[in-house]
Amino acid sequence: MQIIILAVAALLGAGLFLAPAQAAPVLCEKWGSTTVQNGRYIVMNNVWGADTAQCVDVNQNGGFTVTQADHNKATNGAPAAYPAIYAGCHYAACTTGSGLPMQAGSSGFGALRSSITMTYPNAGTWDAAYDIWFDPTPRTDGQNTGAEVMIWLNKRGSIQPVGSQVGTANLAGGTWQVWYGNIGWNVVSYVRTSATSSLDFAVDTFYSDAISRGYAQRSWYLTSVQAGFEPWAGGAGLAVGSFSFGSGGGTTDRTPPTTPGAPAASGTTAGATTLTWGASTDTGGSGLAGYDVLRATGDTFTQVGTSTTTSYTDTGLTPATTYRYRVRARDGAGNLSPESAAVTVTTQNGGGGGGCTATATTQNAWNNGYVIQPVTVTNRGTATLNGWTVTFPLPPGHTITGSWGANVSVGGGTVTVRNLPYNGTLAPNASTTFGFQASRPDGDTQVPTGYTCA
């Protein structure tokens, strides 16, 4: 049986009770909370998924210990609680001096860091996780609707994150399973393949990876950074020993990565091109976090995407247009490398006299998959079309499982479909078809859109 975990505080819907700032109490109230370190952080009991007793002993220096947890919930549903410490704003309860909300595309975002130490009991069923929230607006109250990034340092028992595993990543000194689901907002979870009791990382390390997979956006706002535990059964003895959040987070890394190699372009069509480049290296200690892809049609380069690998496919381009691209690297502390040398790319003209179009029909769709058939390719030009290419973005978490009538490949979140020998030549106004089948996460109702033909 696949175990599904709901978001840690998604169903909270209740205000927080703040105990006196000078106290370091034992919190047993369902929604009990208190400030620590003169309001810099808030510790919350947050028994949001059950009515069983739970108490946390708060350390005014910046941590807490779960002293009582009478939970005994089945693991095929939500956890009982999320006792946690956080910086930022959570349901209108905001800490002092966090600088949040902060837009993920702002100049200071790359310098935001957090660290934690944790202690685990050898009993119960639980996970130990960061819960980092993003919203399309600078929200300070209510439910965030952008992305929820969870970072699981450890877990015990037969539990797993929301959705399904979509890949792996090497980030912040560890290897992580990457999970994705949507419960009204994107839940992107990173589960460490070997448990750890401490972590020190730049927030953008994980957020950049989520962006590169299509699950988050630079325009969204970071609203809170939370860290704690999700217990299903038991949980007494779980403890946060220390927690920090802020600009720099104590890091001394001020060394930028080396300059990436000049990008090279391949597979250029009327609407897309794929770039590859030589890797950067980072010697500052915070680790290479990813790459920014910059594009220009005149003299000014602007960022058009990010990647955690040394390739990127840029789509939605204009036929018969010249573009220039550069790449720069980012490390975990937010340092940026110099920009690479530029490559010049000219898109194809789209097949003379008007090019071609691609129109898709959804033949069948079910809970976790669909069939798109036919996709009709039509020559809209006045001259014979000798070969065609259709591109479209694949929604996050979707996988092409079969195709017919064309050669289909997927790279960087973009599907590229090319004709077969028998259907590549189209007279003016002539058409041909192809089709494909894909899987998608349970509950996701998306199908691909934005087909471009060249």
The chain-level mean pLDDT equals: 87
What percent of residues adopt helix (DSSP H or I)?
under 10%
Number of strands: 35
Number of domains: 3
CATH 2nd-level architecture of the largest domain: Sandwich
For the biggest sheet, the summary is: 12 strands, mixed
* Name given to the CATH homologous superfamily of the largest domain: Glycoside hydrolase family 11/12, catalytic domain
Distance between the termini: 45 Å
CATH class value of the largest domain: Mainly Beta
Q: What overall form do the CA principal axes indicate?
A: globular
Into which percentage range does the β-strand content fall? over 45%
Q: Which structural class fits the helix and strand makeup? A: mainly beta
User: Under CATH, the topology of the largest domain is which?
Assistant: Jelly Rolls
Rounded to the nearest angstrom, the radius of gyration is: 25 Å
User: How many helical elements?
Assistant: 1
Model regions low in confidence, pLDDT < 50 over at least 5 residues: 1-23
Reconstruct the topology from this structure.
Layout: E1 17-19, E2 26-27, E3 32-36, E4 41-44, E5 54-59, E6 63-69, E7 84-90, E8 93-94, E9 102-103, E10 112-119, E11 125-135, E12 147-156, E13 164-171, E14 174-182, E15 186-192, E16 198-202, H1 203-212, E17 221-233, E18 239-247, E19 264-266, E20 272-276, E21 288-296, E22 302-307, E23 311-315, E24 322-331, E25 343-346, E26 356-366, E27 369-379, E28 385-386, E29 389-393, E30 399-404, E31 407-411, E32 414-418, E33 425-426, E34 431-439, E35 452-453
Parallel strand pairs: 1-3, 12-15
Antiparallel strand pairs: 2-5, 3-4, 4-7, 5-6, 6-18, 7-8, 7-17, 9-17, 10-16, 10-18, 11-12, 11-17, 13-14, 14-15, 19-20, 20-23, 21-22, 21-24, 24-25, 26-27, 27-34, 28-33, 29-32, 29-35, 30-34, 31-32
